[in-house]
UniProtKB/TrEMBL annotation:
Biased composition (Basic and acidic residues): 87-99
Protein name in UniProt: starch synthase
One MF annotation (Gene Ontology) recorded for this entry: alpha-1,4-glucan glucosyltransferase (ADP-glucose donor) activity
Pathway it works in: Glycan biosynthesis; starch biosynthesis
Source species: Ensete ventricosum
UniProt xrefs under SMART domains: CBM_25
Gene Ontology biological process terms in this record: amylopectin biosynthetic process; starch biosynthetic process
């Protein structure tokens, strides 16, 4: 649309004599070839102004146009619109405040706007105008939003339609009075436009409602011609060459290479626009109702602009600021670029932008020379202009929408015809689907299986049917043919859309069972989506965990409240009972106190109450204290209910009727009866007492509290005291439990790090902790493996025990690491990994492998969203601590099972139900079921021992009701029956364990019975693991079990090497492993041990062990002295080195130490021998040695805590638990180097390097050989250290306590073994 131009604001007359008229050189027009500037001469005038009658009352208007902050393009900003009258007043007030002095009469300045400099890409400077300008901000913002949207849509087109719109609607705007004049004062503006590229050829400067400063003075412009080097003001027609600048007032057509900005309609001057426009091949013609401009001409008007190829115009809003200005940039003036693209009916697009300099161009503006003339504008002009702008916007948008609708319609019809002709039943618009986009899916019903269905629906999801399912109903379209459609909003996470069509019931069109799918471009790929799913899964898991934790917290809180309520009721009941007891006792005392004993004692005054000071007299004549030099009163009240509350020394009294002594005492407040005795000294030092023949002395308080009230208060006081005591005890227990849990967690964390670093001489990771979703580096030293010397090493990795859904990673050739000794490879750990698995090979295709002797390398992954699936382990054994324990086997079964269960796995234990079993430690024991097998009925009982589910098998034939575990001639037959019955129960009960773990010769039959009778008959899922605890018994059964077992272990690495030559073992070394036993940290815990006097941790080990030693000495009758104490806790057998024990006892006594021995011998001859030795030593070294030839569990705890050293001189020891328990209590082990003793004790002088290789520090004294000199070597060094380096010795005690010898590490090793058996 266009506006008709208003009549010029200047009257038609000659230039007056006052007019300043001068010719100045300026930089002006572009050259077509260079886009540079050449100097031209412009004639400028400053016209006089004819003001109307209302001139002085009009609001001045600035011609400096602020740039819009929302704009990012370079160019002129639109002229601001005017606000309401109220706003005008506020803005005028603001202007006055912003201009110091408030005067503008002498030299106009930018008084109402704060001008700030800012850098633009071309280093040009522009002015940012304060928002107090008189523009309607809402209107401007609306115009800008509309125009930006239009331009963004228009810029996507590749071609510019050549259609000329001649039917655009016109809009008139009646603005102000035609006779008004406007003048601008002389200004100088310097513009640097060198090498500036603007569009392809042109830029438009449009002047609205104003003449040009001193350079142009005109009253009425029609056609203006500009020469090569001059700019001439004319009032008639002037021709323009093709290199001139053209100002247009309407729409323009631009070639493919021209970039244009359209001036916002708000910047239209007061003159109306024309209706029609014509565009030549290389020129732009503006057609007005009264004026036309041919090819190569330029028309300066005061309204909207059209742009021809190769033209440029500068626009000012209602006033021009010139001197030497002609380019596209002005200081503090917005620049507008007009973009026009007329493709598929698109209309002229305009966008407002702030001033921006181009690259390597600078715009220097001398603000001091910039002058702004105030122009008056009628109030009605603003409203009229604003309405015109709004109407024009509405018309533009309507026309644009109509044209786009037509283009879209044509596109759909073309696509529909094309797809139908090709027999394609589905297409989508837009044809390229992007994430976070609305698409429309078209479906041709006639080409599908739903051709005769009245309703068509779409059902689908995203990303392989794994994300956000949807169902929508399709609507019939008006396209030619049977096309139906619906719209879908594609989520930002989508990389594929999957869908089928159906009739809402059971008729489907699913693309021949292949479903339909659309790729989504520019968004996530499948890998990123997998990570997203994992993250969502982790969030859901965390949410469920938080909800579960909250439920548990609430349940715990409810239990706590209920327990507190029950405890309060119990306290009340106990307080009532206690108060009643005290009442009866006090009633009896009051009767005794009523009897007079005035010849022995008396109180003055006779009437007193609680809180009074009284004098108590005592006549010691003929009493036990008759000859005492001092006399004290030890007193209390109410039958000594509060203990000692009166302690005073008596002095001689002046009474003459006896040997009277007296003291002033204060009567306790709540006293009903006073209780006291007399003594010859204060408490703790008195020797002789006068306690009234063991009845004490008692006196009633005459003015005491009434009885009933007293006992009500007394009961309440007792209740409060009980509550305080109970809560203090609960708090202490709670704090102790928290500390215990924290210490266990810290110990477990240290052990895990040791586990990860245990193979550091071969392989480790950086960082040590492998986290899900992280990138880690694996470092490998092949020199310590079978790949030593190989020219290449390849890293082969997967996750989750080689079962990750992505499969193994491609083999990766390792490269040298920075430390030169290792090779390295980098791995991205997936979020759903819980274990990293890897091996090494010499070639990409395999060759020789380093797979850790068939176990592979495994490192736990922390922080992932997936958890390792629990494994089901079943132990079949004939011993279990503490209910059926004979040796270390029972401890291992219980402790290992608990440790594995703590790792999150399921553990069950099968045990014979002996009639000699201690069932007090079995919780919730109940009959489960019975089954028939082996010619008898077998009852199955289920209970919990140490938190573990235990199945007790009780055959009715009495096979295990013989009063013992071992020791009968038919032990082999009995235990074989038990093993077979246990497997039968598993089969009949539907158990499907992953692991069957059996122990020693007694349950060895499980191996061949399982493989021969059950592995192919219902228990095929299980793998069998056999552990040898002691090879000295049942070698035949052990050898047969080794043949059938999938994996076999013994209780230490050294012992596995020591027995490797045994015929039962030697042929099965490939599946034979050594795993050191551990101890149960809950059973052996000096911080929570009820058998020792003071609980202690590594922080107070010295104090704790000192208290334990004193208690041990007192209990056994040893001399209480500070000497080294050697403890020996063992079974007295030849295996345990009894001859070395005897020698060590004598050597310790010679070194002025003490010895305590606890143990018994199954051989009576050995038992009698040690009994005879005990008699001799007890006689010859009384107070320094004590033999306790029995089994005493509480005493063993006290010995472990009180001893300085624990001696274990075994000739062979598969593992040994004694040295591990000793270190748990801070006692230093002295051991012989054999079996598990060698694997767990590192000599402080000789094993530093060996300990460091295990991530440990030296922790004891050890010796080789089996003669007395070996014992002396270790024992003498230990005792000397105790005497000569006590501080170092104390630090050694602390160090060994901090080492973890629990089942934390062995449990991890056993889980590795279980998984390798199932691999």
């Amino acid at each position: 649309m266009s506006l008709y131009p208003q009549r010029p604001i200047c009257c038609r007359r000659a230039v007056p004599e006052h007019t300043l008229f001068r010719i100045r050189p300026v930089h002006g027009l572009f050259s077509h070839s260079t886009l540079g500037f050449r100097e031209v001469t412009r004639i400028g005038t400053t016209p006089c102004m004819l003001a109307s009658s209302g001139y002085s009352n009009r609001r001045p208007r600035r011609t400096l146009i602020p740039g819009t902050k929302a704009s990012t393009r370079k160019g002129f900003a639109p002229r601001p619109q005017f606000g309401t009258s109220t706003r005008k007043k506020d803005q005028n007030d603001a202007q006055e405040k912003e201009v110091p002095g408030g005067s503008s009469s002498k030299e106009p300045a930018i008084s109402s706007s704060v001008t700030t400099d800012r850098k633009v890409p071309g280093d040009a400077q522009s002015a940012e105008i304060d928002p107090t300008s008189r523009m309607s901000s809402n209107l401007v913002k609306r115009r800008i939003d509309i125009l930006e949207e239009v331009e963004q849509q228009g810029q996507g087109n590749d071609e510019i339609d050549q259609q000329i719109f001649t039917d655009m609607p016109s809009q008139r705007a009646d603005v102000g009075n035609e006779g008004d004049g406007l003048g601008l004062r002389y200004k100088n503006i310097a513009v640097d436009h060198s090498n500036k590229e603007i569009g392809k050829e042109t830029m438009i400067d449009q002047i609205s409602e104003a003449g040009i400063g001193k350079e142009i003075t005109t009253e009425r412009f029609s056609k203006v011609g500009v020469g090569n080097d001059t700019a001439t003001d004319q009032f008639n027609d002037v021709g323009i060459r093709k290199e001139t600048t053209t100002d247009l007032l309407s729409e323009a057509e631009i070639g493919k290479e021209i970039t244009t900005d359209q001036v916002s309609e708000a910047e239209i001057g007061k003159e109306p626009m024309t209706d029609e426009f014509r565009i030549g091949e290389e020129t732009t013609a503006d057609q007005f109702s009264e004026a036309g401009i041919g090819e190569g001409t330029m028309a300066d008007q005061f309204s909207e602009a059209r742009i021809g190829e190769g033209t440029m115009a500068d626009q000012f809003s209602e006033a021009g600021v010139v001197e030497e200005t002609m380019a596209d940039q002005f200081s503090e003036v917005g620049k507008q670029m007009v973009y026009v693209k007329n493709q598929t009916g698109r209309i002229i697009i305009a966008e407002m932008t702030e001033i921006a300099g181009e690259e390597e161009k600078k715009l220097a503006v001398d603000e001091s020379s910039l002058d702004i003339s105030d122009v008056e504008e009628p109030a009605e002009a603003h409203d009229s202009t604003e309405n015109a702008v709004l109407d024009m916007e509405e018309s533009l948008l309507k026309h644009k929408a109509d044209m786009e609708a037509k283009a879209q319609r044509q596109l759909l019809e073309n696509l529909a015809d094309e797809k139908f002709s090709e027999g394609i039943k589905v297409f989508v618009v837009p044809q390229v689907v992007n994430p976070d986009q609305v698409i429309e899916i078209f479906f041709n019903r006639s080409l599908s299986a739903l051709a005769n269905e009245p309703d068509v629906l779409i059902k689908g999801a995203y990303n392989g049917w794994r994300w956000k399912f949807f169902t929508e109903k399709l609507q019939k379209t008006d396209l030619k043919g049977d096309w139906w459609s619906c719209r879908l909003s594609v989520p930002k996470e989508a990389y594929k859309v999957d869908f089928v069509f159906f009739n809402g019931a059971n008729a489907y069109e699913n693309n021949n069972s292949m479903d339909f799918s659309l790729p989504v471009e520019g968004g996530m790929d499948e890998t990123a989506f997998e990570d997203l799913l994992l993250e969502e899964s982790q969030k859901e898991t965390e949410k469920l965990a938080a909800e579960q934790a909250e439920k548990e917290r609430q349940a715990e809180e409810q239990r706590r409240k209920e327990a507190e309520k029950a405890a309060n009721e119990a306290d009340k009941a106990q307080a009532k009972v206690e108060a009643e007891k005290r009442r009866h006792r006090l009633h009896h005392l009051m009767k005794l106190a009523s009897e007079t004993t005035s010849h022995i004692w008396k109180i003055e005054p006779n009437f007193f109450k609680g809180g009074d000071r009284v004098r108590l007299y005592y006549n010691r004549s003929s009493r036990p204290l008759a000859h005492a030099t001092e006399i004290w009163i030890h007193g209390g009240h109410n039958s000594w209910s509060e203990g000692l509350s009166i302690i005073e020394k008596l002095s001689r009294s002046g009474k003459s009727d006896g040997d009277w002594w007296s003291a002033d005492v204060v009567v306790p407040d709540r006293a009903l009866v006073l209780d006291w005795v007399f003594a010859d000294g204060p408490p703790g030092k008195a020797v002789v007492y006068d306690n009234n023949n063991r009845q004490d002395f008692h006196a009633t308080v005459p003015k005491s509290m009434p009885g009933e009230l007293f006992w009500v208060e007394e009961e309440h006081r007792i209740y409060r005291k009980l509550q305080e005591e109970r809560r203090a005890k609960e708090e202490a227990v709670h704090k102790k439990a928290e500390k215990t849990a924290r210490m266990k967690a810290e110990t477990k964390e240290r052990t895990m790090k040791m586990f990860l670093l245990s193979q550091k001489h071969i392989v480790y990771t950086e960082p040590i902790d492998v986290r899900g979703g992280s990138v880690i580096t694996v470092l490998y030293n092949p020199s310590n493996t079978v790949l030593n010397g190989k020219p290449e090493v390849w890293f082969r990795c997967s996750f989750n025990r080689w079962s990750h859904h992505n499969g193994p990673l491609p083999p990766q050739k390792m490269v040298p690491a920075e430390n030169a000794s290792h090779l390295k490879a980098t791995v991205k750990v997936p979020m759903d990994a819980y274990m990293m698995d890897f091996v090494f090979s010499e070639r990409e295709d395999g060759g020789i492998y380093d797979n850790r002797n068939g176990m592979d390398y495994h490192i736990p992954v922390i922080g992932g969203i997936a958890k390792e699936p629990p494994m089901h382990i079943v132990h079949i054994a004939v011993e279990m601590a503490p209910i059926a324990k004979v040796g270390g086997l029972g401890d291992v079964v219980t402790s290992l099972s608990r440790a594995v269960q703590d790792l999150g796995h399921t553990v069950d234990i099968f045990l014979p139900k002996y009639n000699c079993m201690n069932l007090s430690n079995v919780k919730d024991l109940h009959f489960r079921n019975s089954f028939a097998w082996g010619g008898t009925e077998i009852n199955v009982w289920l209970g919990k021992v140490e938190g573990l589910p235990v199945y007790f098998l009780e055959p009715k034939n009495g096979m295990f009701s013989v009063g013992c575990i071992y020791g009968r001639n038919d032990d082999g037959h009995r235990f074989g029956f038990f093993c077979h019955a246990a497997l039968e129960f598993l089969l009949q009960s539907g158990f499907q364990p992953d692991i069957l773990h059996f122990h020693d010769w007694s349950s060895a039959p499980v191996a061949w019975l399982f493989k021969e009778h059950y592995v192919h008959n219902g228990l095929s899922n299980a793998r069998v693991i056999f552990t040898i605890h002691n090879l000295e018994f049942g070698v035949h059964n052990i050898g047969r079990a080794m043949t059938y077992a999938d994996k076999a272990t013994t209780v230490s690495q050294t012992y596995s090497r020591e027995v490797a030559g045994n015929p039962a073992i030697s042929s099965h070394l490939h599946k034979f492993h050594g795993i050191v036993n551990g101890i149960d940290p809950d059973i052996w815990d000096p911080y929570n041990d009820h058998f020792i006097p003071v609980p202690y941790t590594p922080e107070n080990v010295v104090e704790g062990k000192k208290a334990a030693k004193e208690a041990l000495q007192q209990r056994l009758g040893l001399r209480k002295s500070d000497h080294p104490l050697v403890g020996i806790i063992t079974r007295l057998t030849v295996q345990k080195g009894i001859h070395l024990i005897k020698h060590a006892v004598g050597q310790t006594l010679e070194r002025n130490g003490q010895v305590v021995l606890l143990g018994s011998a199954p051989d009576s001859r050995i038992q009698n021998d040690f009994a005879h030795l005990a008699d001799q030593l007890h006689s010859s070294h009384a107070g320094r040695v004590r033999f306790c030839l029995t089994y005493d569990e509480p005493l063993s705890h006290l010995i472990y805590a009180g001893a300085d050293f624990i001696l274990v001189p075994s000739l062979f020891e598969p593992c040994g638990l004694t040295q591990l328990i000793a270190m748990r209590y801070g006692s230093i082990p002295v051991v012989r180097k054999t079996g598990g003793l060698y694997d767990t004790v590192f000599d402080v002088d000789n094993d530093k390097e060996r300990a460091r290789a295990q991530g440990l520090e030296p922790n004891g004294f050890s010796f080789e050989g089996a003669d007395p000199s070996g014992v002396d070597y270790a024992l003498n060094r230990a005792i000397s250290a105790w005497f000569d380096a006590r501080e170092w010795f104390n630090s050694l005690c602390k160090r060994v306590m901090e080492q973890d010898w629990s089942w934390n590490r062995p449990a991890l090793d056993y889980m590795e073994l279980y998984h390798s058996a199932r691999k």
